[in-house]
Write a sequence for this structure.
């Protein structure tokens, strides 16, 4: 067997806006934009390949194979993407603006967030002979995601960001290493999805002009 993982991990970052989404001039402060900051940290025996690079808002191998990409940004943009700590962590930042504008003025609250990122785990680098190690060693490894979502209201000061953490662990399945996680369901195998579920809201009740 090859010394690598198998499968694609799909991370869904969902956040429900608690503001009333009506078109009245009165209501809770509408959101101007939302920022998302997510740090992925690999444990000791897992990392990005040595020559991993940032390529057009994605992380790829030296040969251009895509390791991590954003497949749904809801009209937003990647404002920062960094490979850190000797290929042991990745931090990205996103900005998703409220599209409900007329001549520069907001006309409604923005929709709930529904963002998606994919990681091709077979392109990650593993310690030599990792798959030959005792399962207790394998299952002690992980990928930890810590995500913060910060809504910024059109008026007033933003509240503190909301956050969530997902821990993903490898396991042996049908002679291939895949991942399980401590989150919304028991296991996440190739083609399945991992959820971050976060609620966010703006500041207070005011008149929106």
């Amino acid at each position: 067997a090859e010394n690598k993982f198998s499968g694609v991990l799909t991370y869904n970052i969902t956040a429900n806006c608690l503001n009333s989404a009506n078109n009245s001039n009165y209501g809770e402060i509408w959101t101007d934009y939302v920022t998302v900051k997510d740090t992925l940290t690999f444990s000791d025996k897992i990392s990005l390949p040595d020559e991993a690079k940032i390529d057009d808002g994605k992380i790829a191998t030296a040969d251009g194979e895509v390791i991590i990409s954003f497949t749904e940004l809801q009209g937003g943009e990647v404002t920062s993407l960094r490979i850190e700590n000797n290929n042991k962590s990745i931090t990205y930042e996103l900005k998703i603006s409220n599209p409900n504008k007329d001549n520069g003025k907001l006309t409604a609250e923005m929709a709930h967030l529904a963002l998606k990122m994919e990681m091709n785990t077979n392109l990650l680098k593993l310690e030599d002979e990792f798959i030959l190690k005792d399962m207790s060693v394998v299952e002690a490894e992980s990928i930890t995601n810590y995500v913060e979502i910060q809504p910024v209201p059109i008026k007033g000061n933003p509240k503190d960001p909301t956050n969530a953490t997902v821990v993903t662990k490898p396991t042996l399945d049908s002679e291939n290493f895949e991942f399980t996680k401590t989150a919304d369901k028991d296991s996440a195998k190739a083609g399945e999805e991992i959820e971050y579920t976060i609620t966010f809201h703006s500041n207070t009740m005011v008149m929106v002009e």
